[in-house]
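forwarding from the other thread:

> can someone predict this with adenosine-5'-triphosphate?

sure thing
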Amino acid sequence: MSKATDNVLSIRNLSIDYATQEGSLKALRNVDLDIPKGQIVGVVGESGCGKSTLISSIIQLMANNAKTTSGTVFFEGEDLLTMSPTKLKSLRGQRMSIVFQDPMSTLNPVLTIGKQMVDIQYRDKRSKSQKRQRSADMLAQVGIPDPASRLNQYPHEFSGGMQQRISIAMALQAQPALLIADEPTTALDATLEVQIIDMLKELQSSIGCSILFISHHLGVIAELCNQVVVMYAGEIVEQGPVSRVFKSPKHPYTQKLLECDPASIAKKTRNLPTIEGEIPNLSDLPAGCIFTSRCHKKTAQCEELKPKRHAVTQGATEKHFVTCHLESL
Amino acid sequence: MSQLLEVNNLRVQFRVKSSMASWLQKSESPFIDAVRDVSFKIKEGETFTLVGESGSGKSTLANAVVGLLPTASGSINFMGDDVTQMPDKQLMAYRKQISMMWQNPTGSLSPRMQVGDAITEPYKIHNLSDRDKQQEAKRLLNLVGLSARFQDRYPHQLSGGQARRVGVARALALNPKLIVADEPTAGLDVSVQGEILNLLNRLQDDLGVSLFVITHNLNIVRHISDRTAIMYLGRFVEEGPTDDIFVNPHHPYTLALLSANPEVTNVGALERIALKGEVPSLMHRPSGCEFHTRCPFAQELCATVAPVGIDFGFEYSATCHYPR
Ligand SMILES: Nc1ncnc2c1ncn2[C@@H]1O[C@H](COP(=O)(O)OP(=O)(O)OP(=O)(O)O)[C@@H](O)[C@H]1O
Ligand SMILES: Nc1ncnc2c1ncn2[C@@H]1O[C@H](COP(=O)(O)OP(=O)(O)OP(=O)(O)O)[C@@H](O)[C@H]1O
Ligand code: SF4
Ligand SMILES: [Mg+2]
Ligand SMILES: [Mg+2]
């Protein structure tokens, strides 16, 4: 069965548990998400809300104690959850590549950068020196000075931001259909961050790939992405075009999140806004809405009944969804 | 406020080639200066932030300050004693008074150590066996907004943000005088980030601890810091009161950096100053002003003559021939 072909990735009803000493921790619950061809989709949400778990499912490299309890993940028309390991392996790094939050998880500490960059081109028929040249070019493209001589160095000899740029260079070498990036600019200074954003935009339009981009930097999401997905404690609570969601957020969590952005606070303060309370225990979920315990707008029904997903804008081409009782009227 | 830390003309080097290779290539030195001629002061109860290009030597400077890297020249005075000259035993006592929060949160936690043990490890290292570890672990986790059930987790069972909070908890264990925090909020959402920063501010108000914060997040610098230094190629190019720098930056690199900050509110409204060219290599430092190869305002003079620091008063200086 082939799903809507204009989506590179189409996730339906995805739920993932982690087995822990206190029972199963429900890290993702009933997640629906589409990534249209050629679009850049951003994901934001509280630390621990399941963003990296979502990615681990898309690339099918999950923790040993993780279990998919429901759902499908269609990539270019095929379900990744039932795909053979060999096929998955050939997809990864070719049709789909990834930049992790921690660059050292992609880089091998005991091999030189040059060896690693040449090795990942093993499918390519080019000569070794051509591959080295290509690697040096990629490094130059992500702003590493002296690329040819730095190929001989080991990962620990680069700064944190340089390691991150190297892992971006390696992910781009394959020209993938989907690039997944888990906080790729966290370790970069603002000028480089802007440079990487421009580079991703350029790549996106030149090879027409889609990008799934995770970041806590709301300004970067606003600048780079077409769509944004807001997650809270394992669920998607709001999603839609970036301009619309950031300009008129509907979910109380999204509203609070945007208020907490220190960039939006003009006056200097030593007491930054936060969201009162704690994320619920994912091993013992509340009956009603997942945000109830911290919501400033909750009503009686929120405690008892799970809200459904609603379209905020009826009939508009660019859909904006929110999962909150307040919007069900 | 009295002086807590005073760094003078500090230089930190790394060997990047064998001596033989550099001898064969004649002129080339086997060393790079990751930190060159850096001087600054941190007062008691003050927050000093360091921003700058990735790879400019911020973490190297931090590591040297906490005594984890040998210095090539210069001094680091902590309450009157030079850290670079301390015998090992005194260095150990010094390290008890400063805490380091590492840039890489998951990697700096030992993979086989449970969270509760990791955050109370400083007690073990410094032979403070009289403390109730269980109780302390709970107290520290609570301080950083994690519930006690995290005690039994291993690092790989934490999200990136949770691992970072564990790092903060560990740094707080010994009630330090100075906390050196390398990217303390990277990877945290804005709400948890606010919690961590409010926590550090509160500790400062209650205990008078000084903070040396390295960050790429310009939005938080503006709120938390008293003084800021901007680093480029191992040197400070501008240093002064944070409020002044944000209102009226003088060095072109600072200007470019501040203008590059993406924000939600005024998308596209920023007048961005793009930097041309590539980041120079530490092995081949540019002549004259080391920023001239990328500076949008460079003139002829800049390529040949190195500028000296210009003092604008109020402990504010910038190193540029044509400050803005
Ligand atoms: N292997 C594991 N075993 C048990 N719990 C886990 C495991 N990995 C993650 N978790 C838990 O699952 C939840 C989701 O974690 P995940 O890493 O997906 O969050 P995240 O949204 O990526 O957070 P961050 O923004 O901090 O990186 C968290 O509560 C985390 O503690
Ligand atoms: N152990 C080492 N051996 C050789 N060179 C090193 C070593 N550690 C760091 N360097 C080099 O020293 C310079 C400064 O690195 P440092 O990690 O201090 O940068 P940084 O300012 O912290 O960068 P980032 O913002 O990316 O973390 C870089 O050019 C880096 O490649
Ligand atoms: S559903 Fe109810 S409780 Fe949940 S966020 Fe919306 S208003 Fe608040
Ligand atoms: Mg994550
Ligand atoms: Mg660093």
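The pocket of magnesium ion (ligand 4) is lined by residues A 51-52, 101, 182; B 159-160 (CB under 6 Å). thats all i got for now
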